[in-house]
Amino acid sequence: MSFLIDSGIMFTSQVLFFGFGWLFFMRKLFKDYEVRQYVVQVIFSVTFAFSCTMFELIIFEILGVLNSSSRYFHWKLNLCVILLILVFMVPFYIGYFVVSNIRLLHRQKLLFACVLWLTFMYFFWKLGDPFPILSPKHGILSIEQLISRVGVIGVTLMALLSGFGAVNCPYTYMSYFLRNVTDADILALERRLLQTMDMIVSKKKRIAVAHRTMFQRGEVHNKPTGFWGMIKSVTTSVPGSENLSLIQQEVDALEELSRQLFLETADLHATKERIEYSKTFQGKYFNFMGYFFSIYCVWKIFMATINIVFDRVGKTDPVTRGIEITVNYLGIQFDVKFWSQHISFILVGIIIVTSIRGLLITLTKFFYAISSSKSSNVIVLLLAQIMGMYFVSSVLLIRMSMPPEYRTIITEVLGELQFNFYHRWFDVIFLVSALSSILFLYLAHKQAPEKHMAL
Amino acid sequence: MAALDRVKVLVLGDSGVGKSSLVHLLCHNQVLGNPSWTVGCSVDVRIHDYKEGTPEEKTYYIELWDVGGSVGSATSVKSTRAVFYNLLNGIILVHDLTNKKSSQNLYRWTLEALNRDVAPTGVLVTNGDYDREQFADNQIPLLVIGTKLDQIPETKRNEVLTRTAFLAEDFNAEEINLDCTNPRYLAAGSSNAVKLSRFFDKVIEKRYFLRDGNQIPGFSERKRFGGGTLKSLHYD
């Protein structure tokens, strides 16, 4: 009986998460597009719902809500469904939508989609070979095999995003890095842009007039085709067409220049806005926070290096260590069991909420930046895939932040994964990502003022 | 120079509706083979015979400025785009017949181009009366073009065409519905070609001729007549 009640609670919460994912999709992601294929929206919401349910189960584990055996059952069920979605459904639909965008392959969409999916599965399987992920005791299609590979991809993504975010956050917050932009700079650049457009227009007018006169005179302006055409064009070349192709080349070069100027002007406008913003109260607050975040970022890089160099993976979680310190060094006595439960609940809850929120915001920004009306379906599905893998590997890594008595269920359900490997891998990728972001931002920052000097 | 006698028509619309294909079709009478994203603004020139077939026939160059981007862009991108909206003589509004949102966004595009921005929340009341008031005192000729007509199945065509007729009425503009990959929609003599020709004639009239039929004098004296609600960039 209690199993039924528990299942009912789980199901209701899943429906709630599904609804939230649906709304998010409609309101935020697809607000400028029309949803024509509802499949995409359903898949996205389902992935979101099952990922959130995993986090919910962790919280229930800590708080001791629901029957322990029904929790275990739901864990297994949830994990199977999520793996099914991430490995079978989403990649297949990505392949299907990619194929339907290409006009040539329209006829046999399903066939090519299956081919793409098989290629994906092949590479996905090969991914597990170089990593010492798990013992060879298990069969081919077991949960451990799939989860280990999904975990590797997800952890790589997490570390890349973390590294970049840790460096980018102080860079955007602090006004120390803002270049000085005056109104005169912007006006000068805009004037150049308009002058370039004028030049393009006048050249195009000449081309248009030339075409029209040739058309009226009855000459058809064709490129010499065929063997005899080429022979003829050697001796009797039309002088007009040579000039025209020269002008056309100039026009192409000018158009490229106009695009560059446009992007630079947009950049200057954005910088000017940021300077304005930094003078407001909110801006000053963020600037201040930026200093804290830069210290935090440096500390994290330092810790990652230490972990790798000294080959040390954290043995105890922060909650237990914190309690140890307070009890042993500060001599404060309190009910360890009670407090450890509540503190780990709060800590894990904060980690979960901030990572979900952070990921959704990043995904939305990414989507706005690169999607167009043709590719929006494919991109949303890719984002759903990334989101699913990210959340699965968050569960793997969150295990480290929990006291041992709550880790059991994750260890039980996920089987004999080498969890330490994942933490080491996270540290390595985080370090690589953070250092390359620093290098990249440094180069971008240095290059920008030089461009304006050349004006 | 060219700034003295230009006739500038903006081509506005959401990303991916087919503005670049349309402009190519209008200027070269050919279908664009490989459309790609427009960054910034791309200009093309169409030679138009004003009052074709009458003794007052004269040839003009019409510049079609195809401005890329989306209506929900960042303010910095909008401020950069605003540079192209100076000295407008006409606006062609392009929307995708298969995508309702692109038609709704046309209101915001028009307001952005005419410098009367909607509130930042972007809440738009599409009540018929409200819109006509906004555009009632607008002097600039508008034309509404719907693209991708071939992708609408026959059964839904009537419903879509009624909707776009309402849209065009709101803007007090003519409307043309076509498929940019098929030149026959704008074949000489078809009703679409006639509407297009009339639109360009109207643009040229507003630009060069006063209401009583006299021609507007040259550039230096034009400043005396004022630019109305248009923003002008000073070239000094």
TrEMBL record, chain A:
UniProt GO MF annotations: voltage-gated monoatomic anion channel activity
Location of the Abscisic acid G-protein coupled receptor-like domain: 277-446
Entries under InterPro entries matching the protein: ABA_GPCR_dom (IPR025969), Golgi_pH-regulator_cons_dom (IPR022535), GPHR/GTG (IPR015672)
Residue intervals of the Golgi pH regulator conserved domain: 142-207
Keyword field: Membrane, Transmembrane, Transmembrane helix
Catalytic activity annotation: bromide(in) = bromide(out); iodide(out) = iodide(in); fluoride(in) = fluoride(out)
Record's protein name: Golgi pH regulator B isoform X2
Organism: Lepidothrix coronata (blue-crowned manakin)
From TrEMBL, chain B:
Database matches in SMART domains: RAB (SM00175)
CDD domains registered for this protein in UniProt: RabL3 (cd04102)
Keyword Secreted attached: no
Keywords of this entry: GTP-binding, Nucleotide-binding
InterPro entries xrefs: P-loop_NTPase, Sigma_54_int_dom_ATP-bd_1
UniProt-listed SUPFAM superfamilies: P-loop containing nucleoside triphosphate hydrolases
A GO MF term: GTP binding
DNA-binding keyword on record: no
PANTHER family noted in UniProt: DRAB5-RELATED
Family of the protein in this entry: Belongs to the small GTPase superfamily. Rab family.
Chain's role: Required for KRAS signaling regulation and modulation of cell proliferation. Regulator of KRAS prenylation, and probably prenylation of other small GTPases. Required for lymphocyte development and function. Not required for myeloid cell development.
UniProt protein name: Rab-like protein 3
Taxonomic placement: Eukaryota, Metazoa, Chordata, Craniata, Vertebrata
